Prior knowledge:
Elements: E1 2-8, H1 10-14, H2 18-28, E2 31-38, H3 42-48, H4 58-65, E3 70-77, H5 80-88, H6 101-105, E4 114-116, H7 120-130, H8 144-147
Antiparallel strand pairs: 1-3, 1-4, 2-3
The structure holds inosine-5'-diphosphate and magnesium ion.
Amino acid sequence: MEQTYVMVKPDGVQRGLIGEIISRIERRGLKIVALRMNVISEPAAKEHYSEHAARSFFPSLIEFVTSGPSVSMVVAGKDAIKVMRAINGATNPVDAAPGTIRGDFALDVGRNVVHASDSPEAAAREIAIHFKDSEIGKYSRIDEVCLYE
Ligand code: IDP
Ligand code: MG
């Protein structure tokens, strides 16, 4: 089972989309194994988005993602990284397909509601930024016998 880091960004929280987003993750069959709401610190945000440090949008991205509470999750399941990226949709919501979170709820790239890790390396790095090992739960969903062949 693969794990990925998912965030409902401050815009998603302020727009009342936490439940909608968690529902989409759960109904797909993915398992939430860690969950927290907090205001991400500036150092953690800069580390999280370090690959974009040289980009012109970096300061505004850090300011926004630390501007209010966000919801952080570790999500587990078969091909969880690829499946979560597909659930979220394209980075620029204008290009995001209807049925994706960004395609259904967003218009602006700087207010695209959700984050999900884009590779196994990024997932491991991002999970370690936001969660301790001891905060990640280990349990089976009762429907795993039906979800998986
Ligand atoms: P991702 O969130 O789909 O992985 P990335 O390219 O990793 O997309 O960019 C991280 C975040 O930075 C995006 O989700 C978006 O909020 C923001 N971002 C990316 N490109 C731009 C841009 O051109 N202008 C403003 N914000 C951007
Ligand atoms: Mg990214």
